[in-house]
Each structure stands twice: as C-alpha cells, then as structure tokens.
Amino acid sequence: IPQAAIEKAESAYPVIEPLKKAIPTERFAIAFFQNHPNYRDKCFAALGIAEPSKIIDGIDLMAADFNLNKTPRTFSESRQDWE
User: Fold this and answer.
1) pTM of the model
2) What single DSSP character describes residue 70?
3) CB-based burial label for 27 (10 Å; 0-12, 13-18, 19+)
4) Among 37, 39, 61, 83, which is least packed, fewest CB within 10 Å?
C-alpha cells in the first residue's frame, strides 16, 4: 500500500493517534482486571460466563502484548481447567 494512501486514509479516519492514546488506558484496565479477583467474579457472574478461565486466557494474551504477567487465578478459576 503506498504511503500516500495510508496518509490520506489516516487523515480521513484517524487510527494511529487514538491507538497511541488508548494504550495506557488499556494497559491499566487489563492490569486492574488481573489484580482484582473479586471484581472478575462480579463481572463473570453478571455476564453469566460459564468458563471464566477461557476469558482469562484471552486477557493473558492481551497482557503479553503489554509485557504484563499472566493473571493469578483463584481456586475456582483454575478448578474449571480440571473439569
């Protein structure tokens, strides 16, 4: 894709700058979710998530993009992996 085309598209529909601004917020949100198991429980219950471990697996993939550690799982979150 020619650079001119990318610049034209970026001027009409900004993508790069909003992403740069969102990164600190997303990193904070991921870290908060990882470090607050009671909050995770409330979210999973409110959304009716049957297998939270699958959601946490996805969170951990995003966390890796931000050089964050994997989520420390509660007993109930890890127990689902055994079933």
Assistant:
1) 0.69
2) P
3) middle
4) 83
Q: How far is CA 6 from the centre of its chain?
A: 27
The two tokens of residue 73 are 């799982």
> Would you give the distance in Å from CA 75 to the centre of its chain?
21
What confidence tens digit (pLDDT) does each residue in 5-63 have? 888 888 888 877 787 788 888 999 999 999 999 999 999 999 999 899 999 999 999 99
Token reading at 82? 């055994």
Please state whether 48 falls in left (phi above 0), alpha (psi between -120 and 50) or beta: left
Q: Cα(26)–Cα(39) distance, rounded to whole angstroms? A: 17
* Cα dihedral sign, 62-63-65-69: negative
The sign one gets for the Cα dihedral 13, 17, 23, 25 is: negative
Residue 10's pLDDT is what?
83
Report which residue type is found at 60. Answer: D
